[in-house]
Fold this protein.
Amino acid sequence: MPTKLLITIGVIISLFTKCDKQMPDQPNLLEWEVEIRKNHDKSAVFTYTQYIELLKTITKKSSIALPLYQFKDTFDSSRIIIGMRHDVDRHPFKALEMSKIEKEFNIYSTYYLLPTDKYYGNIDNNYDFIRMYCMIDLYKEIFDMGHEIGIHNDLLTVMLEWGKDPKRFNQNELFYFSVNEIDIYGSTSHGSKLAIETNTGNYEIFKEFNKKNFVEYNGKEYPLGIDFMKNFGFEYEGNYIDHNKFLYDVGGKWTYIDYSQKVVTNLIYFDFENNESEPDKAYYRRDDISFDEVIEIVNDLKPGDRLIILTHPIWWGKE
């Protein structure tokens, strides 16, 4: 192989692999942790004692608790199957703490990292994307414990606000993880302010899931359904995995949905299987439930149930 090509390959790999020293104009991992904790530790509303209680309840039920890339393919009508999901918004250091607690219980989860979050990276004044390179050490630590790393998809922000090709951006990030020996299988759609403002799910970037052909933003139309999920580099989208129950802590408040029950209401539910909405019916749902109710719901699970538990690490670790 020509020397010039070897040098070029070496330079590329050096840019994507773990750094032993601080990148220019970037904090090291400890400095970055101090900054993030100063800004976000105060957001916690749940304790790790509560999380341990939840994990103990899961193990006592003799259920199978899995990261989502395994959960999606695991079916057993004689067992309770639980998919463990964490959307890592703003506080990856809480994610690391939770991953260590889970490992003590021999429970493994999926941690979806958010590339548009400040902890991960940002765009500079020239709209070039700059990663926070010190964070790869944290991602590797979580992955090397046996947990799955996924992408918390916010490609609408990448396309609409950053003006970047979402497919190319995503491929670059998957290459970054691949060079650092972290396998990426799936994504989950981020409920960003932009997604809410445009009434568009980030999963609509994928051809399998777009309900419209374009999204309008600041007077300009942007395409949706750009390509199939596999061509973005993903095997699955976490919101479209087969499950009949869902517990999640969005906004620091617990919600429970039972997709096997439908009730008449003035809401509209979305039928994921048939990709259509049905008015005047909704799945059984309980909002703002207590943590004791969360434990009760897990205790009441029956063989054949497929529950996904979604937590956001930023809400955990209250002292």
About this structure: The CA atoms of residues 168 and 232 lie 8 Å apart.
